[in-house]
Specification:
heterodimer; A: 272 residues; mainly beta; 5-stranded antiparallel β-sheet; B: 166 residues; Immunoglobulin-like; 3 helices; 14% helix
Chain lengths: 272, 166
């Protein structure tokens, strides 16, 4: 059975493999900034962070704040303030002390393993550092999955800048062609998806407008990246949009592991 | 009395027409019967027909608030902010000024040297606890003769006209 399945996988095109969304039915993770385009000398934003099906409503779980990082316009490390976690959502503030574009990220890089020991299937979840001692020496049928996820939002005081937008070259990332804080309803926006710093072609991107409690359809758009990893979004109107893309089954940075990588952002599109 | 007139005429002759020419804005800020009224923030700028900004002529906002707090709301003039405001340093001499009360206002600008061609004068008003409105009036620069174009707002702005004079 196993070899048959592998054969089938090999026969499938790489594009098809890459195009599978990471967890199509999973709850959506999101961060929602109070504003993304700001003026003045001391603007702050406040951010809601939660996990839910409906966007952007808090009705399931709060997002944990320990993975949140702030990158200031000059590339230095910023900080979150007034972090708090409630029943359904977390909130935190970011002071935009510098002019330019801030990036706020929640990045995870974890490992999952399943293996058999004495005929019993076992599961493990942990980090790369723990891996060496985590799997017993007599384990068989070891299946390792590396899970890289990245959530990002952007906010700009004054003119948009690019330093904080630089990608790390690890996992799935968004490389802006259109600046993510320069979005208006009448203009299409183009972005690139990069996997380990290289264009991620044939990846499906889901774009969902917020506010679905007040309409019947989800309004979601499905797009696919081209050979350069690029995709273009034509906004149906102004508002907050949730964007997700995922790559499943690629080669991992850890030997003998499969890698799933996902990218999520929230983009604000302003009226003209 | 004669001497100043003579001097003014001479200066007018010597200056290039474009530098001397006037752009006169007549703008009505409507009186609104609302529970909480704040004077609107207003930006006035020149744009090309493709809507790229050429020059900001005026920004009326709460210039006197401590710590420049009035600047926090400049981004509410969304089009101006995106096309010009966010790249400017404010307050700016001759551009920043206090908000204006409801009524008719006449302001004369000297746009100076601009490449000859068609432009719009754009006015964007954003009011606290209120809405946003943008009006555009076309004009030709440099003006060969006196010419006026008029538009009318429907919410945050009233009648607007732009007159160019050589």
């Amino acid at each position: 059975m196993i070899s048959l399945r592998r054969g089938a996988l090999a026969a499938a095109s790489l594009v098809a493999l890459l195009a599978v969304p990471v967890a199509a039915n999973a709850h959506r993770q999101w961060m929602l900034p109070s504003a993304t385009v700001l003026s003045g000398n001391d603007p702050w934003i406040t951010v809601d962070a939660a996990v839910s099906n409906d966007l952007f409503y808090f009705d399931h779980n709060p997002m944990r704040l320990d993975g949140i990082a702030v990158i200031a316009p000059d590339g230095s490390k910023g900080e979150i303030k007034n972090g708090a976690t409630g029943k359904y959502r977390s909130t935190f503030d970011v002071q935009l002390a510098q002019p330019g574009t801030y990036k706020i990220t929640n990045v995870g890089d974890g490992l999952m393993a399943s293996y058999k020991q004495n005929g019993e299937t076992k599961r493990w979840r942990g980090t790369e550092a723990e891996l060496a001692t985590a799997i017993p020496k007599d384990a068989t049928d070891v299946k390792l999955t590396q899970s890289q996820r990245r959530l990002e939002i952007f906010a700009t005081r004054g003119s948009p800048t690019k330093e904080a937008l630089k990608i790390t070259g690890k996992g799935l990332e968004l490389e802006p062609v259109t600046h993510p804080n320069d979005l208006v309803a009448s203009e299409a926006a183009t972005f690139k998806l990069m996997l380990d710093g290289k264009p991620a072609a044939g990846v499906e991107v889901e774009v969902v407008p917020g506010g679905n409690r007040y309409r019947s359809g989800t309004g979601e758009m499905k797009l696919t990246t081209d050979a350069q990893g690029a995709f273009t979004v034509k906004w149906p109107g102004a508002g907050m949009y949730w964007l997700e893309a995922g790559v499943r089954g690629g080669k991992a940075s850890i030997p003998n592991a499969e890698r799933n990588a996902s990218y999520v952002t929230t983009l604000e599109v302003l009226p003209d | 009395m004669r001497l100043p007139v003579y001097t003014a005429a001479l200066t007018g002759l010597m200056a290039t027409p474009a530098l001397a020419a006037d752009l006169e804005l007549s703008l009505e800020i409507p009186r609104l019967t609302v529970a909480e009224y704040h004077r609107p923030y207003v930006a006035v700028w020149i744009e090309n027909p493709d809507k790229t900004a050429v020059k900001t002529l005026a920004v009326w906002y709460d210039v006197k608030l401590k710590n420049n707090e009035g600047q926090k709301w400049l981004k509410d003039m969304r089009q101006w902010w995106r096309r010009a405001g966010r790249d400017m340093t404010l307050p700016a001499d001759g551009i920043s000024a206090a908000t204006r009360a409801p009524g008719k206002h006449q302001v004369v600008f000297k746009p100076g040297a601009l490449p000859a061609g068609q432009y719009n004068l754009v006015v964007e008003a954003a009011r606290e606890v209120g809405g946003v409105e943008v009006l555009r009036a076309p004009f030709q620069w440099p003006p060969k003769a006196r010419a006026t174009s008029s538009v009318k707002g429907s919410s945050e702005l009233g009648a607007m006209s732009v007159t160019v004079k050589p």
